[in-house]
Amino acid sequence: MITNLLVANRGEIARRVFRTCRELGIATTAVHSDPDAGAPHVREADAAVRLPGAAPADTYLRADLLVRAALAAGADAVHPGYGFLSENADFARAVLDAGLVWVGPPPAAIAAMGSKTAAKRLMAEAGVPVLGALTEPAEADLPLLVKAAAGGGGRGMRVVRSLADLPGELAAARAEAAKAFGSDEVFCERYLPAGRHVEVQLLADAHGTVWAVGDRDCSLQRRHQKVIEEAPAPGLPPEVRAELHAAARAAARAIGYTGAGTAEFLLAGDGRFFFLEMNTRLQVEHPVTEAVTGLDLVALQLAVAEGAELPPGPPAPGGHAIEARLYAEDPAKDWQPATGTLHRFELTLPYQEFTCVEAGSGTGLRLDSGVESGSEITPHYDAMLAKVIAWGPTRAAAARRLADALARARVHGPATNRELLVRALRHPAFLAADLHTGFLAEHAADLTAPDTKGVDRAALAAALADAAGRRGALPSGWRNLPSQPQLKRYRAEDGTEAAVRYRHTRTGLLAEDHPDVELVEAAPDRVVLSEGGLRRTYRVARYGDRVHVDTPAGGTALTALPRFPEPVVRTDPGALLAPMPGTVVRVAAAVGDTVTAGRPLLVLEAMKMEHRVVAPVDGTLVELRATPGRQVETGTLLAVVRPTEA
Question: Which of 594, 590, 588 is nearest to 645 (CA)?
Answer without folding.
Answer: 594
